[in-house]
Prior knowledge:
Layout lengths: L2 H10 L18 H14 L13 H13 L2 H16 L9 E9 L10 E3 L4 E11 L4 E8 L11
Helix pairs in contact: 2-3
Amino acid sequence: MTDAEWQVVRGAMPAPAWLEGRGGQPEGYCHRQMLDAVRYVTDNAIKWRAMPADFPAWDRVYAFFRRWRDKGLAREFHDRLRQRARRAEGRDVEPTAAIIDSQSVKGAASVPDASRGYDGGKKINGRRRHVITDSIGLLLMVLVTAADVTALSDTVG
């Protein structure tokens, strides 16, 4: 992560509880290092244990990621960055229009039958990825369903 990227990300990150006097203790690693490590795992599609030695220990990085995910901070962080990007484009923070699309994907043999379905139009047995973006292409929502779910409203609505 470049210094310029870190300046943007740093301002969007939620403040740790201990820093605001809400209890807890300081963390052992810099958030920038942890985010770099999570980005590395995501970008290279590697296992957590295969992380290079120049990052913090893999189990600490995974615990950091899991804690953020479980508390909804990853989503909050994403939403804050999306709002900044929309402001930079001269748009309202919250979108008023969205684009919905879906794609059927063959399910591997390891995918349980309970989460698979048959897309008769494309003749695919597997899952369907539903994606909703705003009008400038920023991600609003992702949902994975069985391939036989044809409308997002069947699941969300």
